[in-house]
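ok posting inputs for the 4-nitrophenyl phosphate job
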Amino acid sequence: MSERLPAVLLVCLGNICRSPLAEAAFRAEADRAGLDMLIDSAGTADWHTGKAPDPRSVDVARNAGIDISGLKARQVIADDFHRFTHIFAMDDANLAHLRAIAPPDATAECALLLDLDEFRRGASVIDPYYGDAELFALTWQAVTTAARAFFAKLEKPPR
Ligand code: 4NP
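and the output
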């Protein structure tokens, strides 16, 4: 493992559906690995700033035994590109937005979250906002698989 623990920011559009679930999945895996890491989520848009996650995300996390009802949406800020080592976007539009607003001296590495999943490289975590509970369940599955892959790599760094 590198000297500095990674610090991970998960980013979607509104920070109420996908990225709070991704944050929960990364926290769960960090806890399992016994790593006290900085993990947070944010949105590229400010539409839902200060709001709790969508109730459908709260439900799907609760089904996995995790309470995300206390999270509050916020927008990505310039300082995030220095505080975090990794910023994972849920889709191409969010990744393009991150790249457009990244300060020139940004140190964070920006990538698609599903690039972590060898079977879904280049794919997006589909926006479930206009979908149903089933789509939220698929979101949870996608972000959990990606989080597990991230921590598996951390625990077994390539030689
Ligand atoms: P998220 O989902 O980006 O996963 O949080 C959305 C939340 C809100 C909206 C769109 C997507 N919206 O249009 O308000």
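notes: The pocket of 4-nitrophenyl phosphate is lined by residues 12-18, 47, 127, 129 (CB under 6 Å). The CA atoms of residues 55 and 73 lie 13 Å apart.
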